[in-house]
Amino acid sequence: MKRPPAFGLMFLVLFLFTCGKQSEKVEANKPTEDFKVRVDRFADLEILRYQVPQFEDLSLRQKKLVYFLSQAALSGRDILYDQNYKYNLIIRQTTHTIVEGYKGDRSTELWKQFMTYAKRVWFSNGIHHHYSTLKIIPEFKKSYLSELINNTDGKFPLKNGEKTGEFIEWLTPTLFDPDIDGKRVNLDPRDDIISTSANNYYNGVTQDEVDMFYSNMKDPDDTTPIWYGLNSRLVKEQEVVEKVWKSGGLYGEAIDQIVMWLGKAKEVAENDAQRKELEILIDYYQTGDLRTWDKYNMAWVKNTEIDIDYINGFIEVYGDPKGIKASYESVVEINDFEATARMKALSDNGQWFEDNAPIMDIHKREKVQGITYNVVSVAMLGGDVSPYSPIGINLPNSNWIRSNYGSKSVSLGNITTAYDEARSGGFVEEFGYTDQEKARSEKYGSFAGKIHTAMHEVLGHASGKLEVGVETPKETLKSYASTIEEGRADLFGLYYIMDPKLVEMGLVESDEIGKAEYDGYIKNGLMLQLRRLQPGEEIEESHMRNRAYISHWTYEKGRKDNVIEKKVRDNKTYFVVNDYEALRRLFGELLQEIQRIKSQGDYEAAKELVENYGVQVDKKLHKEVLERSKVLDIAPYAGFMNPHYKPVTDENDEITDIVITYSDDFVEQMLYYDKYYSFLPLENN
Fold first, then answer.
1. Are 112 and 660 in contact (CB under 8 A)?
2. pLDDT at 438
C-alpha cells in the first residue's frame, strides 16, 4: 500500500532514441542547492522536480542498473492510460498531434485553455481526474475542438475509412458530456459499481457477475491464495473470461519492452538474489502466472542487502472499485543510508509496538518478522505513481506473504523534500488558531509528518492479523477494504507518535512532534482536504475517506469532553485540539475497532463507519475552505517531472557513463514520453 500528502534490433532502436537529446534544456540543470523545484502550474495542479543526489556516487554498474530499471518503468506507461479508460490512448494521441502540429493562433485564450486540458490529461494519465476520478471537462468550446483538428498538420487516430468529421463527431461528446463515462471509479454502494465505473478493467460484466466469477475460483482451504484477477481484464463474450496482461496477451507489446529492459537490468544486478528475483519477475510477465508473482514477491521482500531497489508490476488496486485489479506502476530507488540508519529503530522495535498496541490480543501478531524500512531517493517514477507520487510505500500487499515473509517499507525522501519546499507556508498561517500552534507547526510539522508516514508504512501496515477462517479484506470488506486498511495504518502511527517510547528511542525530542501531527491531521481531515473537491462532490478517494472518518469520529466521540473544539473567529472556522492525551486515547479506541473490523471481516461495520463519517461533506464549510484556500493560491495537488538519463558510449558502443539531467518543461517531457514510450495499439479492446 502507498501513502500519498507513487526498455536485439528493437533494443538498438530504442537505445538510440533514449540516448538522443530530450532537448537542449535537458543538459542545463545539474543538481544544486538552488535547484528550482516548481516548474509549472495549471488548473488545480502544480508540477515539481526532484533531485537524485546519490546518483553521482554510484558505480558505473549501479548507474546502468538505475538506467535499465528506469527504461523498464517508462515502458509500461501506455498500460496505465488504457487501464484508466478505453479511449485514453486515442485521446492522448489526438492532443499530442494538436500540440505539435496546430497551425492556428497560439496566443488566444482558447489555445491556453486547450493546453491546460492537454496538461491535465497527461498529469492524470487520461481524461479522468487522478484523485476525484471525475471526467475532466475541457474549458474551451466544443466548436474549438473542430477548429483544432481541422487546422493541424499531423496524423489523427482515425479508424479505417473514418472521415475526420466523423471522428470529431464521436470525440466531442466523449470529451465534453459528463454523463458519458463520467467517473473512473464509482464507490457508491447504491449503484452497480462495475458497470457505472469508466475504468477499463471490466467489459460487459456486472458487479454480480464479477463476484460470482471470482468466488467460484477460490479454494477456501488454501492458506496461500493468489490474488485472483490481479493482472487481467474481465470481459463478457460468449461467456465471462479473463484476458491476462502478459507477453503475447493483453498489453503484450508494452510488456515485451518491460521484459527486455528487465533482462538488461538482470545482467548488472547488485547480487545473486536480485538477479534471481528479476528472472522470476520476467517469467511472471511472460506467463501471467500469479503463483509466479507470489514467488517473485517472496524473493523480492527477502532481498535487503542492496543499494538500489525497485517496484515494478501490477500492484495497487485503488483504481478498481472492487479492489481486485491492479494498475501498472514502477519506482526506481537508491538507498539513503544516513537517513535509513536514523529510522532503523522503528523496524528493530516492531514487536514492542505490536505487543503494546491498543488492539485485542487475538488480533496481535505473535511474531512480527521481516520488517525492513529504508529512506530512499527516487530515481524514476512510472505508471500509477507518475506524475502524482506517494511519499511512502509498503509492499507486498498479499496478507499471507506479509505474515510469513515480512514487508518492505520505504519513505521517498527526495519526493518528501520537494513537496515540503513547494508547500512551505500559507496554510499554517491561515488555518492555525493560536500562535503556539502555528509556531509548533512551523518548527515540527514537516518532521512530524515524516515520522507519522514512517510508522504508517513500517508498523501500521505490518500490524495485526485476521481471525482464523476469515477471508482477505478484499473479499470481506469489498469496496471499503482499501480505506479501512489505510485508516488502520494511519491510526497506528497517530497512536504511537505521542508515545514516550519514541523519545526513549531517540526518534523524537519531545511530545511536541506528536502534538504538531495531531494539530495538522485533524485540521486536514475536517477541513483542509476539502479544497481538493469541487462544490457538490462527496469524498470518494480512499485516503481522503480514511482521514475524514478518523477526524470526524474522534471529533464526535470527544465532543462531550471538548477534546477537539470548533471555534469561529472573524467568520472563519478553526478546529483546535484541547486535550492531546484524550485524543490519543480516542485514536486507540478507533484503532481497536478498525482492527476488529478487518480481522473479523465485518462489512456492515466498515460500511457504517465510512458512510457515516468519511463520505459526506458539509457544504457550508466546504465553501469556506475553497474561498480561504483560493486566496493562498496553493495548488491542491502536485506531481513530478522525472530526471533524464543519457548513456555515454565509446567507439565500440559500450556504455562508459550515464549522465543525469533535469528538464524543466513539463509539456516537452510528456511529448517525449508519448513519442518514445508508446507501444500499444490505440484500441486495446
1. no
2. 94
